[in-house]
Amino acid sequence: MATNGPTPDIDRARDIVSRIKDPEIPVLTIADLGVLRDVGVEGHRLVVTITPTYTGCPAMKAIEDDIRATLHGAGYHNVEVRMQLSPAWTTDWIEERARRKLEAYGIAPPRPVGSRGPIHCPQCRSTNTECISEFGSTACKALYRCLDCLEPFDYFKCI
Ligand SMILES: [Zn+2]
Prior knowledge:
Elements: H1 10-18, H2 30-33, E1 36-42, E2 45-50, H3 59-73, E3 79-83, H4 96-104, E4 107-108, E5 129-133, E6 141-146, E7 152-156
Parallel strand pairs: 2-3, 4-7
Antiparallel strand pairs: 1-2, 5-6, 6-7
């Protein structure tokens, strides 16, 4: 391990950080979500750049603490977590692979921004769905119900 060397081991750090889970959606990593923008080195310091999802989303503080704690645990002590607000995060940054994971977890993935297409039930794929509440289990989700299989489900709102 090069933790005491002059330059932090960037590839290992990037690998470690990209495995950190989103606190609200534990099947997704912050890399899946597109929240993790960059892991770089400035002198002896490791700089992790993240872009917050929803403004004021309380999960961001948890993610920041997680990054710091995980890297410290792996031997990186000189760590800075930087918030990059521009360009603003959008659900379009969520990778295809991550959308499939969301659906398998029972959350309907966000539509492409600007799309007005139907929302598929993650259980039976029916598009015969209705919105029950604009606010689901967290602020970034809405609660839907499938009118075919009658299962309620969370829809990850697009922004
Ligand atoms: Zn259904």
